[in-house]
Write a structure and sequence with these properties.
CATH class: Mainly Alpha
Radius of gyration: 14 Å
Shape: elongated
CATH topology: Substrate Binding Domain Of Dnak, Chain:A, Domain 2
CATH architecture: Up-down Bundle
Order of helices and strands: HHHH
Strand content: under 5%
Number of strands: 0
Helix content: over 70%
Length: 115
């Protein structure tokens, strides 16, 4: 449910998913920096930040009922899918959890776009 109005209630599941994905990506990014194979994770580390930032912006767009919210969430789903693919290449716990959360977020973004 919206915090001060009910205007964003229809987006709440996607807002929550994007918020969780933002946190997961930042946490995974931080953990990846400490992995011994950091050089092999360059693409993963890069997309983690891109995904987190896109999710943050999606939350902002939906929270203000922005006129391009659907288009933004459509792109957010693509970026979350790509981030999940990158995380799937690494078998450590943080990347596996982040992969799952990114996939869930992408699905919620696609549902929001379909409204």
């Amino acid at each position: 449910m919206g915090v001060v109005t009910k205007k964003t209630d229809q987006f709440q599941a996607c807002i929550d998913a994007c918020t969780k994905c933002t946190q997961a990506c930042y946490e995974c990014f931080n953990e990846c920096l400490n992995e011994p194979d950091l050089n092999a994770r360059k693409n993963c580390v890069s997309i983690l930040i891109e995904c987190a930032m896109m999710c943050q912006m999606s939350v902002a767009m939906m929270s203000m009922s922005g006129q391009f919210s659907k288009e933004h969430c459509e792109l957010c789903a693509k970026i979350c899918d790509k981030c999940a693919e990158e995380c799937a290449m690494f078998k450590d716990d943080h990347c596996q959890k982040c992969e799952d959360i990114c996939r869930m977020c992408a699905e919620e973004c696609r549902k929001m776009v379909a409204m």
